[in-house]
Amino acid sequence: MLPSSLIESYSPPDFITIPKYEQEAQIADAGVERSDIQRENTKDFTEVLEELRSTRQVSKKELALRANLSSGYISLLTSGARKAPSEETVAALADALSLDINDRLRLFEAAGFPSHYASLNFRTGNVKADWGEAPNVQVFYGRKKQLEELEKWIVRDHCQLVSVLGMGGIGKTMLAAKLAETIQNTFEYVFWRSLQHAPSVQSILKEYIQLFSYQPHNNLPDDVDELISILIEYLREHRCLIVLDNFESILEAGTTAGHYRPGFEGYGQLLQRIGEVKHKSCLLLTSREKLREIPRLEGKRLPVRSMHLIGVEIAEAEEILKDENLQGTDETWERFVKLYGGNPLALKLACEPIQDRD
């Protein structure tokens, strides 16, 4: 059971103290509801299909053969008589036209499907990945709206630098890992590293470049600017996803937000270059603090954006804790989740004394 005495007497630990930026984000995000990713002025499915077919100079007969569909059905689609094809049909048409991820997005959205359907049905077959310390996300609950929004930023809007911010235990790492797993097939390379043990920026950059170019470490320069320049060239040439988790580990504690520990200023240079220089890749980072390079680079229409995570909803919390065998009324659950700010880690830790009382 969820005892009222525990709920009333609980004082949240320091790691879930809400930073100022998150208090502001809670106010800003509280009224945001997005049932799916619908876009204004989306073209009609027939119009998009015909545009893509014409651009690639594929006849209706050839399209039918490639997609393993009847010529009559293709005629219905291209004439506008059939405007709501199934997910399987849209995927078959996209494969038949050899569409890249951007055109697949257009086709799926024109057919009325959310953007993530395009990436789920997209298989490049040659993704090279180094997952480093990425967690297993086989069991993942909630955050559907956040996943869709982040996927839109990276896959459709081609954001170059994305920050996922929030207090400790709020689920930043798991969300980033689930996102990376979901969209990995839209990239040629995926590289994940945790900064928890504060690796030098030189070592991280050399590992990136080695993955992309197969160059041994001893053939690379030690100068940070030179290493970043080499990396940028690969980010321009290839579609790469780089994830840096626990970015707060290289920041100076007790100082103005976003200031680096001595010797780690090179990470700031990396963020600035990746955010400013045009390329076709993305750096995704998680942090408890907002980095000082971000505010002047970000914007709703710019390729640098930030998402502030707040606590999970009651239904999500119940799903996360379903293996804890907790029982309580709707009112008790609401008080319990609200007291812990919807923080998944805090909720799990709170279950231990609750179970000890049972």
**Tally of structural domains:** 3
The computed structural class is alpha/beta
How many runs of DSSP E, i.e. beta strands? 6
Distance between the termini: 7 Å
Shape type: globular
Q: Radius of gyration from the CA trace?
A: 23 Å
Q: Give the SSE string.
A: HHHHHHHHEHEHEHHEHEEHHH
How would you describe the overall organization of this protein?
- A 6-stranded parallel beta sheet has the order 1-3-4-5-2-6, sandwiched between helices.
- The protein folds into 3 domains: 4-17 and 313-357, no CATH class; 45-113, 434 Repressor (Amino-terminal Domain); 127-308, Rossmann fold, CATH 3.40.50.
- It contains 16 helices and 6 strands.
- With 358 residues, it is of the alpha/beta class.
- The longest helix is centred in the middle third of the chain and has 14 residues, at 224-237.
- Strand 4, helix 13 (266-276) and strand 5 (282-287) form a beta-alpha-beta unit.
Jot down its keywords.
358 residues, alpha/beta, 434 Repressor (Amino-terminal Domain), Rossmann fold, 3 domains, 6-stranded parallel sheet, 6 strands, 46% helix, 9% strand
Write a compact overview of the structure shown.
46% of the residues lie in helices and 9% in strands.
Task: Please give the structural blueprint.
Elements (H helix, E strand, L loop, with lengths): L3 H6 L10 H10 L15 H11 L4 H8 L3 H9 L7 H10 L4 H10 L5 H5 L7 E3 L13 H13 L4 E5 L6 H12 L5 E6 L6 H13 L10 H14 L2 E6 L20 H11 L5 E6 L16 E5 L5 H7 L9 H10 L4 H14 L1
Parallel strand pairs: 1-3, 2-5, 2-6, 3-4, 4-5
Helix pairs in contact: 3-7, 4-5, 6-7, 9-10, 11-12, 12-13
